[in-house]
């Protein structure tokens, strides 16, 4: 009958899992927001770690959140590894129970050690599966899961080589709705040049030390520059004091909650090269000087940064090869070169994928139909 033919499909039930850093959570939240925007009746459940920061961030989104006992395996000392392996059966049971109760149409993993047991339980229960890989070099959990999931969404094209042929699709890395809205607005002009320093969601002491030394060596060179510096909790006070003593205009905070507003003030960014930060910078078209975290697993932050550097959107420096004097020289040179900043901005924007969340939602629907 015609009425039955035109009946709408039931709303999607999506289970998202991942966590451990803001870089894992933000894309998951962006995907959930995109799904709800298109399907207000859709049902969403997050399964995350028991870390306080994860729970607090997810609970602020208003989505349903549950946790399981889970610990990482890679790079752990023997006692920690034994503990993590001993907890695995409990992790699988807890994940399976939550999956049975929620009845998802599709399960999506976004990275972090909690992803492993949740997707393993979903596979045992024959739920449709996909994963989203944010970095150029996949983590251990995603490499293993790539063999059994239905689809693999990629943020960067070079990570394709780590997964089975035919399963991958380049979607980009979803960014928060507030960031997308900021990207559509014209950036304010006038006033002093503004330099934004980011060390990741937890801050980065080596970056804090390097940047403050570079900018305060000859503070008169930066008299016309305003500094916005995200320090992490431990370094806020001494960083602020360095700028105050040097007479440099600055705004210092351990963490900026309203990042869209913060980004909108920046002319140049000094940052680590976590996947989510890079996705945000590219969507916004912000030129960057990148200092990858040197101890990231498989050196993935350097590989992430190199993609943007090779394509003209950023300068990339190894932390151990960047003295403070050279950093100061590079910053001054860029801030004084408006055409170069404009070229880098345009290159960054070409690398950004603003509809990454919508692409992943479309893949969720595709996988669910199977």
From TrEMBL:
Pathway it works in: Cell wall biogenesis; peptidoglycan biosynthesis
Annotated ranges, domain Glycosyl transferase family 28 C-terminal: 194-360
Alphabetized CDD domains for the sequence: GT28_MurG
Compartments it resides in: Cell membrane
Domain of life the protein comes from: Bacteria
Annotated keywords: Cell cycle, Cell division, Cell membrane, Cell shape, Cell wall biogenesis/degradation, Glycosyltransferase, Membrane, Peptidoglycan synthesis, Transferase
Ranges for domain Glycosyltransferase family 28 N-terminal: 15-152
SUPFAM superfamilies with a match to the protein in the record: UDP-Glycosyltransferase/glycogen phosphorylase
Recorded topology in the membrane: Peripheral membrane protein
EC number: 2.4.1.227
Annotated GO MF terms: transferase activity
List of residues binding UDP-N-acetyl-alpha-D-glucosamine: 21-23, 135, 176, 201, 301
Catalytic activity: di-trans,octa-cis-undecaprenyl diphospho-N-acetyl-alpha-D-muramoyl-L-alanyl-D-glutamyl-meso-2,6-diaminopimeloyl-D-alanyl-D-alanine + UDP-N-acetyl-alpha-D-glucosamine = di-trans,octa-cis-undecaprenyl diphospho-[N-acetyl-alpha-D-glucosaminyl-(1->4)]-N-acetyl-alpha-D-muramoyl-L-alanyl-D-glutamyl-meso-2,6-diaminopimeloyl-D-alanyl-D-alanine + UDP + H(+)
Pfam assignment, any one: Glyco_transf_28
Family listed: Belongs to the glycosyltransferase 28 family. MurG subfamily.
Function description: Cell wall formation. Catalyzes the transfer of a GlcNAc subunit on undecaprenyl-pyrophosphoryl-MurNAc-pentapeptide (lipid intermediate I) to form undecaprenyl-pyrophosphoryl-MurNAc-(pentapeptide)GlcNAc (lipid intermediate II).
Protein's name in the database: UDP-N-acetylglucosamine--N-acetylmuramyl-(pentapeptide) pyrophosphoryl-undecaprenol N-acetylglucosamine transferase
Species in which this protein is naturally found: Desulfofustis limnaeus
Lineage start: Bacteria, Pseudomonadati, Thermodesulfobacteriota, Desulfobulbia, Desulfobulbales
